[in-house]
Specification:
32% of the residues lie in helices and 19% in strands. The protein contains five helices and five strands; from the N terminus they run βαβααααβββ.
């Protein structure tokens, strides 16, 4: 029997995943963290209520391969530039050691795209929000000592434009 490795976890709904009646300490910790993200987003000009309905409307899921999101990014950037996508379709949802230069040029801000929310959000520490804003937002984490962590939270919109 083949082992299913889940590489990309998805949560849709509230960013607070625990109700206060389930575990008050975890709920309080999640609520404080989400409140900080909401404040950071407001500083970036993105207004959204992330604290509404905590612990409700949570659906979890996953992709067996994060390559599916990468393939979608590749398709978007190649189609946008009028390139042939037959090789990408043949490859399927895989990530090779050498990444697609058209995608990495967008990541490195060497090229622009109509699809920044799709291409720049790579699925790791990334969230899509139901509010419209022009460019993805990157927010820094702080560790327990109040020092900036090397991880980054990526926020993009999920509103079709």
């Amino acid at each position: 029997m083949a082992e299913h490795i889940m590489e990309l976890d998805l949560a849709v709904g509230s960013m607070i995943t625990t109700r206060p009646d389930e575990d008050r300490a975890v709920y309080d910790e999640e609520r404080e963290s989400v409140a900080q993200v909401q404040d950071q987003l407001r500083e970036e000009g993105v207004t959204i209520d992330l604290l509404a309905q905590p612990g409700t409307e949570i659906w979890g899921g996953w992709h067996r391969n994060v390559g599916a999101l990468y393939q979608l990014s590749r398709l978007a950037v190649h189609l946008e530039r009028g390139e042939d996508v037959s090789e990408i379709l043949q490859d399927g949802p895989v990530i090779y050691e050498e990444l697609d230069a058209m995608v990495t040029d967008v990541w490195d801000e060497l090229a622009t795209t109509r699809f920044p929310h799709l291409i720049n959000l790579q699925g790791i520490n990334s969230y899509y929000l139901p509010v419209d804003f022009a460019q993805p937002v990157w927010l820094a984490f702080e560790n327990e000592d109040g020092e900036e962590d090397s991880r980054v939270l990526r926020i993009g919109d999920c509103v079709a434009t």
